[in-house]
Task: structure prediction
Amino acid sequence: MVLVFQGSLSVRAQEVKLGNVDGLAPLPNILFILADDLGYGDVGCYNRESKIPTPHLDRLALEGMRFTDAHSPSTVCTPTRYSLLTGQMAFRINYRNVFSGIGGPCLIKNNQLTLPQMLRERGYSTAMTGKWHIGLSFLDQGGKLITKPDLEGVKLVDYSRAISDAPIHRGFDRFFGTACCPTTDFLYAYIDGDRIPVPPTKLLDKTKLPKHAYSVDNRLGMVAPDFNLEEVDMVFLKKSREFLESHVLRSPRKPFFLFHSMQAVHLPSFPAPQFKGITKAGPHGDFIHQLDHIVGELMKTLEKLGVADNTLVIFTSDNGPETTSVVRMRADYGHDGAKPWRGVKRDQWEGGHRVPFLVRWPNNIAPNSSSSQTISLTDIMATFAALTGAMLPNNAAEDSFNILPVLLGKAGRKPIRDFTLHQTNSLALSIRQGPWKYLDHQGSGGNRYDKGALVAFALPDNAPTALGQLYNLETDPGETKNLYFEQPLKVKELKAKLDELVKAGRSAPVMR
Result:
């Protein structure tokens, strides 16, 4: 089936009222901040009962728009990041699970249009700081691709060789960050461009790391002399600031796109020393507060440089909160990072992928506004295309919808998306239409609720023989009652639409 978009997918830049700063570029700068494993209920402006102060995120909400029905494309890191930077759901390339260590090669093909490449072609300087996690190709001394991502593979890397599929080869002019989860995955070293300037030299000594209930997620790997696991996010902040300051000084008339991809608040929760004990919610609460501080520092940098009014800022998360974080924070501090949703990271239920999504753009986005539109992080690509006047080819951004009208208050009540697809790391799929949500599988699609710490949070299954799940989020936001047998026509309708959109190769409309 061919889907046709009625009208232009692109909005010319001159048709958008831009919040210019005198003498600067007519197109807005873009700062996109992606948190890791931050839950909907972890942020004060989404959860009044949060035990963790998030004043800077709350200020973003007051000065911009807060989305209440925003979703990560997947319930785990790697596929969400792939989908964000390509506008295509990762299940379409049949990728399952997440990378670790030096896993690769990059999921984004060499000739595939990416978000930064699209913006670069529109005149933007593009930079990324932080966690990549979409796969990289590391070579041994013989120039062969290393296929073992773990400690054994890390020991084989020839660090004098360039990484052929690094972010600077996928649309970014600059990159400083890590291959995968910075404090979790086997390779504890920074990548600058497409090389590791300070290679790892010894095994990580875990006895010197903090020990608490939220510190057990880092694997034994090789660590570089300049890599302090408790300072990673502060290093990322320093590098992002350096880019902003350098860019505004050297190229004040050229717009920038900065993708700040955080380590926080992925386990292990290692807040920097100055944040330890700063909250009454333990190490993970301190880590979330540090995340909020970093957002504030980035905003202060924009203001200091005089570009805040001409910068579109988006803050969101790559999926829901981690199981350990939720279970322990509920028990230890009465804080619920998944509130008010069912499920956590890896689950197809709302807690696994409904995420905070805040947008600030002075003079263009109404302050202290909110939207209940259903959106996905895949929508960033089509939205930025509309914002900058870029024309998306039909073989790109296959699952991306333009939400610019929502941001500008011009969408009305008409849904931007008729249907929204979701996936887990096991490639279990679901589809959403308005209040209706159909899961094409049994169970959570990710975590096990029949054993371990999650047993206590398992809900009674009123339709144990059903092959799928159907929920009405308007009447049952907690996804407590499976309507599979009570609404067979709706199940058939949504199952058919899901199969159709999977087979079509896209869910977004195409240009004529």
Notes: Confidence is low (pLDDT under 50) at residues 1-25. The first strand starts at residue 29 and ends at 35.
